[in-house]
Amino acid sequence: VGQPELIALEKSLKAAMVPAGTARE
What we know:
Layout: H1 3-24
């Protein structure tokens, strides 16, 4: 896995976690 792929994966994970976190409140 290349570095750009890791960064993209991290961004998609964070993007998925933020709406879940806000919906929980």
